[in-house]
Each structure stands twice: as C-alpha cells, then as structure tokens.
C-alpha cells in the first residue's frame, strides 16, 4: 500500500508546477509584465526550443534494445482505438474537424508521465515501474508528440487551402447574403464534384508535401532522430557523451517543463476565467482523460497480452493527468488551447485520488 512518505513525494512533484503557473498568472493578471504578443513568443520558445531539447534528453537516455514489444504494441493499439472512437463520436455529434480529433487524442492518450507519473507509479509498483515507465515516456517523445505535430500541421494546411483569398466579398454592399467564406466553400464544393480521382490525389499530395516540409523544418524532428541515433550508439557500444555537451543539454532541457508550465499560466491569465472552456467541455475533457483513456489502454493491453504488474502499470499511467506538452502545441497552433489548459489544471488536482482508485480496483 502507498505510504505517507510516498504521498509526500507525489505532492512534492506536483506543487512546483502550481507555483510556476501561479507566478506566470500574476505576472500577467496583476503585474502586467508581459503583453499578449510576448506571451505568444514565450510559448513559441517553449515549442521550438525547450520541448525539442527535452525530447532529445528523454529519447537518448532510453535503452531501445531492452524495450518491451508487448508494451509498444499495446500503446500503439490504444492510440489507434482512440483515433477510431473519436472519429465515430465526432461523426455522430456532427461536430466535425481534425481539431477535435487532435484535442481528443491529447486528452485521452498523452498523460503527464514525466513529472507526476514517476513518483506516483514508483510508490504504487516499486522497481517494476522504473523499467516500464521510461519506455512509455520514450514512446511519447519519439512517436506520439511527432504524430501530434503532424496532425497539427495537416490541420493548418487544410484551412490554409480553403481560406478565401481576400475579404473583399464580405465587405461589399449590405444586400449580399453570403460571406466570402461561404462563397469560397461553395466554389470548393463545385470544384470537388468536377474533380477526377487523379486531381484529388494531386491535391492530397500537395497538402502532404507542404506538411512534410513544415515537419522537416521543425526542431522537434531533428531532436527526435538525433536522440534515437545517439541512444543506438550509446547503448550498443557504450560510447558516452562528452561531459561538456551532456551538461549543456541538461541545463537547457531541465527548464523545459517549467517553461511549458509557465506558458500555461500566462495563457490562463489572458482569459477571463481560469476554466476557459466552460463546465460542459470541462466534463468532456475529464471523461476523456480519466475514463476513456484508461479503458482503451485496458482493452489494448488485454488484447496484446499484457499481464500482472505490466498490465496494471499500463492502465494506471493512462489515468494520469494530461501532459503539458500537448497544450504547448495546441497553443502554438491555436487548436483548442482552452480545453487542454483546463485538462492540465484540473487533471493535476484530482490525479492522486483517481490514480488511487484505479490502483485499489486493480489490486482486488
């Protein structure tokens, strides 16, 4: 059973995050130290500098030759199931759009394993979690954050193509009944009806090429591949990184999550309410995070064949609160940042009791 000292370690890991958020909040709300443009610039720094260095550190320090294939498969199946379920829900609710899929995936499948997960899981499952949790963190940094960036860039490329060339149509006489966006939408629909299959393929290819160019220029892509290459060399031949390089990366990456949390506090201060997405979307976000995510991981783990402690670790880590990095990306691309900020804030508040409930249920 979890001891009081274990609870203390979890609280010790969580409280500094709230201190950072509170300082950022009062910097904008009370002291007016940062303008909105400066807040956006800070988040851009985090997305393009702090997060890539953090990803490199996580990936390069993981022994890729000793990873559990079953855990990898279960993690991939969970993401696939979440993607499928979200598409079905969005189609049924008639609330279409890639933005909602991105938001749903961020909430249900990308938990905060790096800060909160390590002390909490170690308190529950001791040394077993030390083996499994770094692998889950590795998969997040190596695969899923990059996949999330791909979806963000894809979403940005699709509205960019359908956006009207100018706003002159909507600003003309008051007798007009259609905005330029509506006119453009109808023109696009007409074009699509007359398109041949080869033309559609060409449009898709152009969009994918644009997305590919964006991802190639993204620092997180470089950090991922360099980190993977270094991990392959280090754990294969025992080659150590020079201390001057290692210390430089450590200093720069250690502030990554702190800066991400600071950006979260700045965003909260820029809104009229801390819970910016409203009560209904808050309930949806909490349901995705603490019910749908663990349920999908349980199904995926059982199907793949995870058993005993490995199964429990997989399910409980899925019930951890939403990670901060998805919020940074959502803020950078302006894709539902209000919902994700609420997910982080409330998720960390109720993370301990929720994790304990799952821990007790799985112990029966």
Automatic annotation (TrEMBL):
The keyword Transport applies. Pfam families: Mem_trans (PF03547). GO terms for biological process: auxin polar transport; auxin-activated signaling pathway. One of its GO terms (cellular component) is endoplasmic reticulum. Residues 166-180 have a biased composition (Low complexity). The chain crosses the membrane at residues 6-28, 71-90, 97-120, 132-151, 219-237, 249-269, 281-304, 337-361. It is a multi-pass membrane protein. Residues 165-197 are annotated as: Disordered. May act as a component of the auxin efflux carrier. PANTHER family: AUXIN EFFLUX CARRIER COMPONENT 1B-RELATED (PTHR31752), AUXIN EFFLUX CARRIER COMPONENT 8 (PTHR31752:SF40). This is Auxin efflux carrier component. It comes from Cicer arietinum. The gene is LOC101509031.
